[in-house]
Each structure stands twice: as C-alpha cells, then as structure tokens.
C-alpha cells in the first residue's frame, strides 16, 4: 500500500502545474504547496523514525514547521517518498517500535498512519487541481485504516474535523474526504 500511495501521489503531482501550487484546498488553511510541504515533512519524519527509532528534536521542528520543498515541490516529494519506501522496506523494520510526535507505536501502525494521511492529502491536491485519484482499492484501504485510528479525541480543529455526511455509494474519494472532515 505504501508504494501505491507514493505512486498515486506522484501521479497527481506530475500533473500539477507550478501555477496550481497556490490553489486553495479542502484543508482550508493550506494551499496545494502547503500540503506538499506537509507530506514531504511527514514522509521524512516517518522515514527517520523507521531508520533511527525517533526523530531528533532539532530535525522535528524543520519537518513539521519549516519549508521542506524549496523551489522543487515535486522533486522534494520524490526524494522524501523514496526515503520512506527504503526505510519501511528495510529488514526487521516492521518489528521495531518508533517514536513520533504523537506517541510511540509499532512501525506497522506508523506506516498505516502515513498511508491514510498521504492518501487523504493526495485526494485533497487532486481536487484542488482538477484531478482524481483513481486507485479505488488504495482509497478504500486508507479509509479503513483511518476508521481504525481516528477517534473522537482527534476530531479537533487543526487535526480532523467532524466526519461529514456522504452517501455510502459515493466514490471512494468522497467517502475518504468526508471521513477526514472535509466539507465537500
């Protein structure tokens, strides 16, 4: 699933123009560029946690609040996502505990959080740029992971909004976004 979410996100970014980086997204406080920056910081953070067990404090501030993409958001995503792929494919990594800013957990749980987060943001970016994420199986898996991980305690401003109402027969993109609290 990690490879599929990396590929789907890369496909969306490959069809995102420089002018579209300033487009607003369903994450109402973030533009497309802001979301790419968040995903690059997150992919790097998850990679470092898989490699080292935790992210050094001096690095964490940059990854969660700094400019992680510079003048090349697509290239930054390619680099960060490849690092995450390599880190999570390393022998024994899934047997490790990793420490992230929101807690210590098995690497497999961290991986599921990353897949849910990136899949959701890939759809956010797709919507903001007139595209679609067409890997329905990926989106269904991301939604299932989200349903296992996101409880009421995370439904607070700046994290996840309240789940929005959407028809059960709606496309997977809509159901994933509605679960994440996006107003469609």
Please tell me about this protein's structure:
The chain has a two-stranded antiparallel ribbon with strand order 1-2. Helix 6 (136-149) runs parallel beside helix 7. The protein is mainly α and 184 residues long. The longest helix is centred in the middle third of the chain and has 22 residues, at 107-128. It has helices spanning 2-14, 32-52, 57-65, 73-89, 107-128, 136-149, 172-179; strands spanning 97-100, 103-106. The protein has a single domain, classed as Up-down Bundle (Four Helix Bundle (Hemerythrin (Met), subunit A)).
Q: Layout of helices and strands, plus pairs?
A:
Layout: H1 2-14, H2 32-52, H3 57-65, H4 73-89, E1 97-100, E2 103-106, H5 107-128, H6 136-149, H7 172-179
Antiparallel strand pairs: 1-2
Helix pairs in contact: 1-4, 1-5, 2-3, 2-4, 2-5, 5-6, 6-7
Q: Label the structural class.
A: mainly alpha
Our count of helices gives 7
Query: Helices and strands, in N-to-C order?
Result: HHHHEEHHH
* Nearest-integer average pLDDT: 95
Task: Kindly report the name of the CATH homologous superfamily.
Answer: dinb family like domain
Please summarize what this structure is.
With 184 residues, the chain is mainly alpha-helical.
Question: Which descriptors apply to this entry?
Answer:
7 helices; Four Helix Bundle (Hemerythrin (Met), subunit A); two-stranded antiparallel sheet; 4% strand; mainly alpha
């Amino acid at each position: 699933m990690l490879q599929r979410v990396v590929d789907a996100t890369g496909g969306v970014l490959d069809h995102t123009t420089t002018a579209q980086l300033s487009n607003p997204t369903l994450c109402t406080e973030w533009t497309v560029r802001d979301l790419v920056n968040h995903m690059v910081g997150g992919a790097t953070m998850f990679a470092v946690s898989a490699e080292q067990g935790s992210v050094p404090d001096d690095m964490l501030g940059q990854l969660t609040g700094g400019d992680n993409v510079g003048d090349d958001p697509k290239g930054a995503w390619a680099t960060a996502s490849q690092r995450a792929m390599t880190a999570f494919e390393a022998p024994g990594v899934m047997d490790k505990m990793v420490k992230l800013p929101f807690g210590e957990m098995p690497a497999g749980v961290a991986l599921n959080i990353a897949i849910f987060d990136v899949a959701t943001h890939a759809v956010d970016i797709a919507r903001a740029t007139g595209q679609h994420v067409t890997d329905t199986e990926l989106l269904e898996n991301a939604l299932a992971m989200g349903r296992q991980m996101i409880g009421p305690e995370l439904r607070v401003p700046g994290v996840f909004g309240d789940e929005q109402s959407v028809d059960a027969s709606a496309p997977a993109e809509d159901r994933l976004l509605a679960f994440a609290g996006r107003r469609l």
